[in-house]
Amino acid sequence: MVVVLLGLVQRLLRRDDTQLKLLLLFTLIATVGFAFPRLDWVTYIGYTLVALLLTQVMVGRSKAPDWSDAIYRGLGLVAVAAMWLWLLTPLELIYSGMPLALSWSALVGWSVIRLVTRFASTKRVTEALLMGATAGYLHIGLAAGLVMSALETIQPGSFVPLKLANISDTSVLANARIFSALNYYAFVCLTTVGFGDISPMLPLSRMVSVATSVAGPLYLAAVMGVLIGRFASSLDRQSQGR
Asked: Where would you tag: which of 50, 58, 81, 232 has the fewest CB atoms within 10 A of its CB?
């Protein structure tokens, strides 16, 4: 019975539509901690599931060279390990956030490129494709929030009026509730809304904020171009078939 269930799960995970729907589901799980700070640990489980799905499961459909897929898989594992290492280390070890910031910045950039390439190779616009495109956009905001949170521990005071607890033996995870505000700020940057209630104060935090604000419109432009092109192609095929 167990073998049958495992086989069924494997077959489902091989399907493009299932993978894209799971990507959106895991991305939404990662946002739970924003609305319910007491469940902040669920957010980081969501981050883990998203990274593993992108790099260990969805990579199977890639047309990239084997060495590229191998590096991408390794980057996903490094990013997950760096995140949990950062969460479990004391706040006084401020540079534990550097591997996280570097690995997740590289992971989200590479993942977005692979997702857009995957969307461009599809023949028609489907429900699963739209869900995957939505998940990709949210993934940029989530990753930006995680990088900003790491930056706040590396350079305290990067974002005001936020302030971490000044307790040397307290782990980062124990102070994770403040990071929900930074994730909110990341999506404010991504959508270029700019409420102004949180402001970047240091050069690096300003650069990350600008990069996030640029990435959001670029992703929307690229994905909208692909989706409109796929939809127009499907209409042409339908008209020629009449």
From this structure: 232
